[in-house]
């Protein structure tokens, strides 16, 4: 049926989103994960790096629900604190990448000419290389830390949103409302910031949401290879490193399965939310 008249586009989008059961489930799961990460000291029985060397590689029991790792640290505690790192890397790297991509994509789309040529050739050059090739070089140069992992992901991931924004602005910059803004004497940066970017917020929001999931997966992959977040700082990625050992893989599933499950459920929830936002913000969709 047609949407009720008199409602703002954002109110319609909100109503559509909350009618999507999978999107709501994903949002609830993400909210729980984020609050668990924020309140990790309250929810965990030990400090982040607490060790009991007498219980190295011990399995789960009634007190330590997820057992111990190969140096005697409580895996449940590390899992909750690891959520802080993995979620922070995903969110912050996406914010940085989106800011860079929207800025450069807007400049390329609106100004065209030389600016467009330079920016898009840079985008094409970066996208020619597989992510892990660039990541290995940058990680070897900068070092394996949380901050550097964020920079590495952001330095590569901005290219996709730049192309999306450029394409949208190319189609919008000749519209009547932009011509009217020019006729009123607005500066070019005012037209971009006040008129063009607000009109491409829907694809930016959807892309950014889905990109968080990609960034979390990339962090997990880098940390698994020893190129991302390094010990003793926990992340879900470097907790999966124990799966490289055949002994742990076969006989100690508690050391790697919880981290793998957290990556899986987080990425799945983000994808549900992203799909819900895509459907909710699509002006052509009638429910």
Automatic annotation (TrEMBL):
Gene3D superfamilies in alphabetical order: MetI-like (1.10.3720.10)
Keywords noted in UniProt: Cell membrane, Membrane, Transmembrane, Transmembrane helix, Transport
A biological process from GO: transmembrane transport
SUPFAM superfamilies assigned: MetI-like (SSF161098)
A GO CC term attached to the entry: plasma membrane
Membrane-topology descriptor: Multi-pass membrane protein
InterPro entries: BP-dependent_transpt_permease, MetI-like, MetI-like_sf, Oligopeptide_permease_AppC, OppC_N
Signal sequence range: none
Ranges annotated as spanning the membrane: 22-43, 87-111, 131-156, 204-229, 256-277
Compartments where found: Cell membrane
Entry keyword annotation includes Membrane: yes
Domain spans labelled ABC transmembrane type-1: 83-274
NCBIfam families in the cross-refs: Opp4C
Record family assignment: Belongs to the binding-protein-dependent transport system permease family.
Protein name according to UniProt: Oligopeptide ABC transporter permease
Taxonomic classification: Bacteria, Bacillati, Bacillota, Clostridia, Eubacteriales
UniProt gene name: opp4C
